[in-house]
Amino acid sequence: MNLNNIHNIYFVGIGGIGMSAIARYFKATNKHVSGYDKTKTVITDGLEALGVDVVFNDSVETIESSFLNPNDTLVVYTPAIPKDNKLLNYFKENGFEVLKRSEILGLITENTFCLAVAGTHGKTTTTSILGHIMMECNVPLTAFLGGISENYNSNLILNGDEVSVVEADEFDRSFLTLSPDLACITSMDADHLDIYGDASELIRTFEDFSKKLKPNGKLFVKNGLPLKGITYGIEDDSDYCAQNIKIQNGAYVFDVKTPNTVLEQVQFNLPGRHNLSNALIALAMALEYGVSAPDLVKALASYKGVKRRFTYQIKTDDLVFIDDYAHHPEEINAVHQAVREMYPEDKVLAIFQPHLFSRTKDFGAEFAQSLSQFDEVLLLDIYPARELPIEGVTSQWLLSQIDNPNKGLISKSEIIQTIKESKAKIILTIGAGDIGVEVNKIREALIHEG
Predict the structure, then answer these.
(1) Alpha-carbon gap, residue 26 to 130, rounded angstroms
(2) What pLDDT does residue 263 have?
(3) Among 319, 320, 318, which residue's Cα sits nearest to residue 338?
(4) Residues 113 and 164: beta-carbon distance below 8 Å
(5) Between the CA of residue 101 and those of 105, 158, 339, what are the distances in Å?
(6) pTM (predicted TM-score)
(7) Which residue(s) pair with 118 in the sheet?
(8) Exposed, middle or buried by CB within 10 Å (0-12, 13-18, 19+), for 138?
(9) Average of per-residue pLDDT values in the chain
């Protein structure tokens, strides 16, 4: 398919973080873009501000007439859309070209020099670091992000069309539509077992992804993963290695050993060894692409982060409020490591909203272990997303496995008062569901209280 010949693009699920980045891209390249989503959000508001028509009713009557011709309209959908969605079924039954988001990403990037970031954790932060440092070095790129970059207040970085930087998403095996020139795999922890069945099948699919590289392509792998490639790691024997790590004024300062040289006094402002690892692989990929090392080091120091990835909402001497998207036990462990490294002496209250009944069931023991590490832990009800309840799998069930005397269940309406009554200096909100909607309310209430 030649995207140059398509003028109308309709998105079913346009408010998704990955979908909206592609919608922004097509709008910026002068396509006629419209779409549907279930709920009005900050993301859909942003699209409407760009002139994209968004509807919130899946009735066929809501489709603008110019999108009703299957000969000049392409339809893009996300696998998160229910199979009984009326709009999606109308397009499928009436001769429209209907493609998954991942297939469109494959088409957009196939004629570019593509840098792809894969892994069960770290994709969004790594992609946004890579997009930012290459943008700062004026590489003619388009970067599609799975989160909102603090530097650009967007999930799209647009500076040209010769190079693409993308997240290679393992959900629904989406990343197998890509053919990257440079790719990395940050992690291969068991996840999405509702899709894969077991961890071994997930690993096999990552192996399949590693074979999708273009001829002469290069694969980077986190040291210790069971795949061959250029290795990267922290204070180990990797090809690209972060060494001599210090914390100065709340930032990491470290050296990077490459196969050819050592970059000294590199600064990175996000806390957590997991983020340091993300910065390291972004530097490695940009160096292999051919950007100059001094320019990259300067660019990395200006990176601000991704919204809802260890995002400071309040940072004072008396109170610190951090919000994070973590929704897997290993991600919660990473948040815990980061907060303990930055605030080793302070009491930490974590408020967690489990995401998906299936994930909670599959990793109940692991979630309990990771959450038990905080000084105090409170659970919201499980956020169902695309799922129906599973009998016996509830937040109470998860809470019963947490080994911590300071634990409990909480409703959204109780969060603010509970925080005010807590003696904890460090407050964490954690989860990938709609807990993010509560963050602004919590911050405003605590600022007002202060």
Answers:
(1) 22
(2) 97
(3) 320
(4) yes
(5) 6, 19, 35
(6) 0.84
(7) 168, 185
(8) exposed
(9) 92
Cβ atoms of residues 312 and 246 within 8 Å: no
Q: How far apart are CA 77 and CA 13, in angstroms?
A: 6
Mean pLDDT for the stretch of residues 92-107: 93
**CA-CA distances (angstroms) from residue 392 to 38, 366, 368, 398, 410?**
28, 17, 16, 10, 19
DSSP labels for 415-436? HHHHHHH---SEEEEE-SSTHH
86 vs 198, higher pLDDT? 86
Please check the confidence at residue 191 and state whether its pLDDT lies above 60.
no
Kindly indicate the confidence band of residue 450, based on its pLDDT and cuts at 50, 70 and 90.
low
- Which helix (H) or strand (E) is 42 found in, with range? helix 42-49
Q: Of all helices (H) and strands (E), which one includes residue 62?
A: none
* Cβ contacts of 234 within 8 Å, gap of 6 or more: 241, 242, 245, 273, 276, 277, 280
| Residue 301 in this model has a pLDDT that exceeds 70 | yes
Domains of the chain: 3-99 (3.40.50.720), 110-300 (3.40.1190.10), 311-449 (3.90.190.20)
Q: In what order do the strands lie in the sheet with 407-409?
A: 311-315, 320-324, 426-430, 348-352, 376-379, 407-409
Q: Vertex 385, ends 350 and 14: CA angle to 5°?
A: 115
Res 164 pLDDT > 90? yes
Comparing CA positions, the residue from 141, 139, 132 lying closest to residue 270 is 132
